[in-house]
Amino acid sequence: MGIFDKIFKTDKKLIDNHVAQTQFKLMNDFIPIFNEIVDPYESATARKAIHTIATHAAKLNGRHIRQTSDDKIEHNDNLTYLLGVRPNTFMSAFDMQYKVVTTLLLRNNAFIYIDRNKEGKIIGFHPVNNKNFEMMEYQGELYIKFEFPNGNKFTAHYDDFIHLRRYFNDHDLLGSSNKPIQNKIQVIQTSDDSVVNAVKQSSFLRGILKYNTMLKEEDVKKHRDTFIREYMDIEDQSGVAALDAKADYKELSNEPKMTNEAQMKFFEEDMLSYFNLNTSIVNSDYTEDQWNAFYESVLEPIALQMSQEFTNKVFTRNEQNYGNEILFDSNRIQYASVRTKIALVQYISPLGALRLNEVREMFNLPPIEGGDKILQSLNYVDATKAEQYQNVDKNEKDDIKDMNDDIDNPGGDLNDDKGKG
Fold this sequence. Notes:
By secondary structure, the protein is α+β, with helices and mostly antiparallel strands. The protein is 41% helix and 16% strand. It starts with a helix and ends with a helix.
């Protein structure tokens, strides 16, 4: 049994042999047979951008939680294990999320097959590495037919797949293609080729060999070949050629055109901007503010989309009503500077908002025994119990009020009588 048969078991090919299946038409009358026009992964700049996003997105922590009216309970169950440790036999959680996000950025559509056993329990998540796919309709239900690079085909219900999409506009179900960057890729490739060609051309000697006597055509050719063989051999490093009076050699200037540094920089930044990136993020020399902007504009939307799609496809509507959901998130504090971490601890620890081990985790320190305790400064008190805490009763409050009035209005009623007179 190969990998394909192990993942896509034959008893789950639901409609491949049914002749009644038809192509699924969308509201815009588009028949969704999806083939990628251009492969951005062939561009070094695009690959760097995709790798950067996929690497950081693979750090997202996926887990099963249940939201109650006053708490968020994390379930340490099989789902959390599949999402956070090993989603399938062949991949770690990091590998799966890296591959899924890479596919999403390359094709603007990414599918994850939900593998269930006969009892309907989820036993794995498998990214679909398809060549192309087609939306099909069978008995009023939506199916997807995948064709893989090795020629295998697999068809299953749309609800059996996690479907992530990007640039979701033209189609009712699918993300649009990356056709807008096809010219960008070609321009960058042409620019790279111009440098390579310039280096190659600079290593060749080009010129005209002029003979001062009349020679037969075959003799001219013979002398030329002899000159090339003896003086233009790449292994000849002398740089000296010898000619007698019967011939003159005139070198032809060869100045190959190539893309300059400013143009190359513009092309690269233009490609990175397509993926909402800049060179600082790609080269990992970003500031804290740049990282926060990258997280909020690139990573957080991916995390939100994955959370919502996994929740909808993994749980029934009734299970969702009980607060069950899949959550992908990241500990953003880990990427903050040491100065920011210290300031955060100083401000919120006195409020009793952090455990000792949570503080240690911020600074990459191991947990300690008893570290789940919450310490709070005695300078803070519950606002509803502030008066009780200060042992102030109603009579004391009235006395304090009268005292404050005397301070604000020396003379009290006498001043009021004078004012009336």
